[in-house]
Amino acid sequence: MLNRDIFGRLFQIELFGESHSEEIGVIIKGVPKNIKLDFDFIQYELDRRRPGQNDLMSTRDEPDKFNFTNGVKDKTTTGENIRIAIPNINTHSQDYLQFEDIYRPSHVDYPARLRYGSKINLKGGGRFSGRLTAPIVAAGAIAKMILKQYGVNIAGFTSQIGSIKDENHYSIMQIQKKVESSIVRGMNSDLDKRMINLIEDLIKQKDSVGGVVTIQIKNYPPGIGDPWFHSLESDLAAAILSIPSTRGIEFGTGFKAANMLGSEHNDLYILKNGIISTKTNHCGGIIGGISIGTPITFNVPIKPTASIGKTQKTLNFKTKKLTNLKIIGRHDPCIVPRVLIAIEAITAIVLVDHLLISKNQYK
Ligand SMILES: Cc1cc2nc3c(=O)[nH]c(=O)nc-3n(C[C@H](O)[C@H](O)[C@H](O)COP(=O)(O)O)c2cc1C
Q1: Distance from the Cα of residue 41 to its chain's centroid
Q2: 342 C-beta closer than 6 A to ligand 1
Q3: Where does NADP(+) bind (predicted)?
Q4: Distance, CA of 284 to chain centre
Q5: Cβ contacts of residue 326 below 8 Å, gap of 6+?
Q6: What pTM, to 2 d.p., does this model score?
Q7: What parts of the chain have a pLDDT lower than 50?
Q8: Which atom of ligand 1 is nearest to the CA of 341?
Q9: 145 touches 42 (CB < 8 A)
Q10: 66, 95, 263, 277: least CB-packed within 10 angstroms?
């Protein structure tokens, strides 16, 4: 049996369960012992990701309460594998009967059957569901607690919804202060209003929209990472692209680097308050797969939600005829503000994995 839903080398996560099974969860290996866990923080993170937070989100009402069933005693890690389970309470499997013969465009219904056969259970998205990001967020909360011991801070915001873009630069402190007061998790109140209006408009039109998530990481120690297939960049990219609906990643100046000259793009070394730094940060904090101590920054584009209520003409796989599909169910018109939390979490998991590997001198 191939290990399928496992990620990480030292701090390793393995997902279990499906969208409509009794529970979903995560087994975490490699968590150091004697780490005091802040249960309120884990719940806070899960609440930031859960549906039904406001009128712009899916009305699926999942409380996302977690249980540690292994590896934690008196709210402290024991050094054994940690197991976190989250019950599925609010499932509406009947909403998915309509996709037995008419596969949702841009969703997993067709490719999942190609890979695993027609008997695969895809109620609620099955194993592919965005719901599996809940246990990732729980594991990410533990990773964030470990990173905090090293003074590392992660923050993200919605920098684009549709064509409405926020191109300003914000410090981590500014992001942390403002982002949770915005229901789209944006940083600029005027742009927030325009983003909200757009999403409200699309709800009326039974359509959906995508956007971009911007992540910043401060105080990640320099000298962490590896070359080649487990470079810090490639592990972050692999982990982030595993989150359903992400379409890419660009570090630092990203794709714009293609239009720059070397003399413009090179980050010149300087001494800042006695510490080696760089004048600019086009590289986004990583060179040669290894952190250099400047903020790690990247953007992640998110596609528009595939499940839309608007009528779509698509193939009925049984009759082989074109037919009208009108998707019912409780789908987010824009998943960007929720995917952001999953991206923060998986980022924390990769950063801890690399930190523990480098600090433990695995060369
Ligand atoms: C937190 C979260 C919630 C999601 N909710 C929905 C949803 O309500 N409807 C939908 O069509 N897709 C939703 N998605 C996206 C699909 O899971 C995803 O598009 C699908 O699995 C296909 O994968 P891909 O887009 O990465 O290729 C969600 C993703 C995440 C991370």
Answers
A1: 17
A2: yes
A3: 49
A4: 19
A5: 309, 310, 311, 312
A6: 0.97
A7: 1
A8: 1
A9: no
A10: 263
Contacts of 79 (CB under 8 A, 6+ apart): 31, 32, 33, 34, 71
Contacts of 102 by beta carbon, 8 Å cutoff, 6+ apart: 314, 315, 316, 317, 323, 325
Tokens of 235: 């592990």
CB contact at 8 A, 311 and 278: no
Question: If we measure between CA atoms, which residue out of 354, 360, 361, 362 comes closest to residue 143?
Answer: 354
In this predicted structure, what is the pLDDT of residue 356? 95
Q: How far is the CA of 237 from the centre of ligand 1 (A)?
A: 18
d(CA 285, CA 289): 10
Domain regions of the chain by residue span = 5-361
The reported pLDDT for the residue numbered 3 is 62
Give the three-state DSSP class for 161: strand
* 126 three-class SS: helix
Which element (helix H / strand E) includes 6?
strand 6-7
Distance set, CA 275 to CA 195, 294, 360 (Å): 40, 11, 24
pLDDT of residue 360: 81
Cα–Cα distance for residue pair 270/253, rounded to 1 Å: 19
339 lines ligand 1 (CB under 6 A): yes
Whether residue 133 contacts residue 243, with contact meaning beta carbons closer than 8 Å, is answered with yes
DSSP state of 319: T
**3-state class of 212 per DSSP?**
strand
Q: What CA–CA distance (Å, rounded) separates 145 from 153?
A: 10
CATH superfamily of 5-361: Chorismate synthase AroC (3.60.150.10)
CA of 245 to the centre of ligand 1 (A): 5
Q: Distance from the CA of 194 to the center of ligand 1, in angstroms?
A: 24
User: CA nearest 277: which of 229, 218, 333?
Assistant: 218
Give residue 323's pLDDT.
96
How far is residue 305's CA from residue 244's CA, in Å, rounded to a whole number?
10
Structure tokens at 190: 């005027």
- Token pair 């202060």 is found at 177
